[in-house]
UniProtKB/TrEMBL annotation:
This is Helix-turn-helix transcriptional regulator. NCBIfam families: HeatShock_HspR (NF047375). It comes from the Bacteria. Residues 72-99 form a coiled coil. InterPro entries: DNA-bd_dom_put_sf, MerR-type_HTH_dom, MerR_fam. Residues 7-75 form the HTH merR-type domain. PANTHER family: HTH-TYPE TRANSCRIPTIONAL REGULATOR YFMP, REDOX-CYCLING DRUG-SENSING TRANSCRIPTIONAL ACTIVATOR SOXR. Keywords: Coiled coil, DNA-binding.
Amino acid sequence: MDAESPLFAIAVAAELSGLHPQTLRQYDRIGLVVPGRTRGGSRRYSMRDIEQLREVAQLSSEGVSLPAIARLLDMEDEVRMLRRRVVELENELRTERENRPGVRVFAAGASGQVFSVGAGRRIRRSTEVVLWRPGARDEAE
């Protein structure tokens, strides 16, 4: 079970958020906070939905319009998604770094083919040019 799991019926969600059930129905109709649904069509709110409802109530009490609140919630969702993607990419990068055998150097041969140069192999500069060495900038810093 996590913050996204739809658990709470509308009456419980209304009590937890401090809003009237009719307000929650209205927010659902306009797409502001859209809960999950059971097979029978009943609304089920997650903890994240409850947090959003509380945020909507706070912003609304401060005079922020519902369209502006909707935009803020959309941006928060986007930031959350981007943060998850950053974590995924960091994990992929970490895995790639752990799986690569030492520092690799890439070179281009006289005919233009690109190949990886093994660790400790000397490159004949008269016929080959070093193109890229991953981590070279990291090591210099």
